[in-house]
Amino acid sequence: MTRVAEHDLSRRFATRAVHAGYAGDPLSGAVMGPIYQTSTYIQEGLGRHKGYEYARTRNPTREALERNVAALEGALHGFAFGSGLAALDAVMKLLSAGDHVVSGENVYGGSHRQMTHIWSRLGLTFTFVDGGDAKAVAAAVTPNTKIVYAETPTNPMMRLCDLAATGEIARTAKALFVVDNTFATPFFQQPLQFGADIVLHSTTKYLNGHSDMVGGMLVTTRDDIAERIGFIQNSSGAVPGPFDCWLALRGTKTLALRMRQHDVNGRRVAEWLDKHPRVERVYYPGLKSHPQHELAARQMKGFGGMLSIELGNTAFARRFVERTKIFALAESLGGVESLIGHPASMTHASVPAEMRRRMGLTDSLVRLSVGIEDVEDLIGDLDQALADD
User: Fold this and answer.
1) Which residues pair with 198 in a beta bridge?
2) What residues contact residue 47 under an 8 Å CB cut-off, 6+ apart?
3) Helices 375-386 & 255-274, crossing angle to 10 degrees?
């Protein structure tokens, strides 16, 4: 189990992003950390080695990424996984059959699928509520509740969870408070400061930022939780390869720069769409019309590049996503390039239709991941895609 160095936590965010987790290669002094592309390590003798025995357990490239992301979140411990869902899988393995989880209803479709189709079958129980309603979260807690799980902002409805209030609910219930911080990133939001015990990321998204690897991450400041997650990581073995870790670590170095531009572009695109006659509603916390805008301004330092729009007509929504030229129709999000998607048939197709309807995820909802291109070009692309034939 590796631990973040104190000097990495004392530095400001952009400095941490560039330097945290890596102190230089002792062999060559390489500025960029090496890719330790190895499965095993030579041992000096029985029981004598340099801290590394087998790469599933420890790998220097992976450890550099783990320390880097943990430092960005203000955490002491980080654990990298082969995907965001593998990270969630590790969180669920902290529990035992009969344990109960209170989860926001509007989580990533793959998270909901894992909870309901895998863990429910293995004895865990789940209650899905509006994570933005602290009273509903509190009412769902039972004596068996061991985790309160939140995603904020949510995918794709852009709802917020009041982190401080929900953290207090979890503490009162003696449950772990787990927050998926993928959309906001630690640049805009650090849930540990509001009482979270564990923060989860799909490193595939903004942390990597270049759409060229798949990975996940868990961070925590609690030593007891870190010891358990480390055991699960090693025992279950869902670890990323060193090259994927190196790609993600390359990505975090520019996180501060990229997130500033995502935020600038996201705000501009949201404001433009909010005035467009063909758009019925824009879901973006940075708009003052968003019902939780004040909460967003209080617990976030920016609003980022994710937004969704309601077009009110399924056929028009499908035509729209197929007509963009810069926004690529694709799964995923958070890369430097702009992406567009149709959640009902893509990321959230596995969520029951009635549940999608209840939270407003209609067949005419479109999700945008606004990249870092020139915003005038992005608006022009959306304009031509929304235009009548």
Assistant:
1) 178
2) none
3) 40
Q: Where in the chain is the domain with CATH 3.40.640.10?
A: 6-252
pTM recorded for the entire structure: 0.96
Candidate list 3, 11, 56, 171, residue with the active-site label: 56
- Say how many residues make up the chain: 389
CATH number of 6-252: 3.40.640.10
Task: State the span(s) of the chain assigned CATH 3.90.1150.10.
Answer: 255-386
CATH topology for 255-386? Aspartate Aminotransferase, domain 1 (3.90.1150)
Tell me which of 108, 149, 206, 283 is the catalytic residue: 108
Sign of CA dihedral 122, 134, 182, 16: negative
Q: Is 180 a catalytic residue?
A: yes
Tokens of 314: 């399924």
Contact 166, 131 (CB under 8 A): yes
Q: Quick: pLDDT tens for 263-314.
A: 999 999 999 999 999 999 999 999 999 999 999 999 999 999 999 999 999 9
50 is an active site residue: no
* pLDDT, tens digit (0-9, with 9 covering 90-100), for 160-191: 999 999 999 999 999 999 999 999 999 999 99
* Residue 108 annotated to the active site: yes
Examine the residue annotation and report whether 206 is marked as an active-site residue of this protein: no
213, amino acid identity? M
